[in-house]
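Work Package 3 (structural annotation) set out to generate three-dimensional models for the target panel prioritized at the project kickoff. During this period the team completed the workflow that converts sequence records into discrete structure tokens, so that structures can be stored uniformly alongside our sequence database. As a representative example, we reproduce one entry of 229 residues exactly as it appears in the project archive.
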Amino acid sequence: MVKLTGRLSAAAALCRRGVTVCDVGTDHALLACYLAQNGAKEVIASDVKEGPLSAARRTIAEQGVTNVTAVLSDGLDRIDYADDVVICGMGGELIMKIISGCRFLSEDTRFILQPMTKADTLRRELYRGGFDIIEERAVREGDRFYTVMLARYTGAAQEPDELFCLCGRITDPDMLRHIAGKLLKNAAGMEASGANAEQAQHLHVLAEQICAKAQEYTHLNGGTQWRQQ
């Protein structure tokens, strides 16, 4: 049985059982094999490079799973269909580019996304592109925080506010405080250089709002998610 990192475990937990899943950028196909071993009907393990795909084929053979197919594909270019699409370990901009190339997009398709960078950009572009983020799960590995998003296509484009782009549907107080801390660090840099005092003050305001949400969720102890209004 495959063992996953915290990030991949969180992504796997958001995938549906009994459906076809495409793991984009599969690398060694650990997530793909895990899903195949835990209720997926079929798994497509895709990667843009032959090297990682060869490693994926070895993992598939070692794990003895028969419902995983390795496919050479640039994003979703050669993928004809999947119920759930998983994209982990890439930058937010690249993830959005891959999603934008989906040829089988429907309101039933679900996207499980784990950006390594620019999660705020990904949230903004998802909503501009007619998607809704249903849920987010915070994951901490060492001193780094990550989010895993569950999104679906609605066709209704929206312009999310700045606070939502920064925090999305995250309800974990520690991750919210981490986001606020990064804003305060950026503000301190601006203040030290004597440049853009107005923007520095704006970052302070955002950080205060995020800290207030963190405090709210601390009291709620995992209660109702903060939703974009």
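The chain is about 45% helix and 25% strand.
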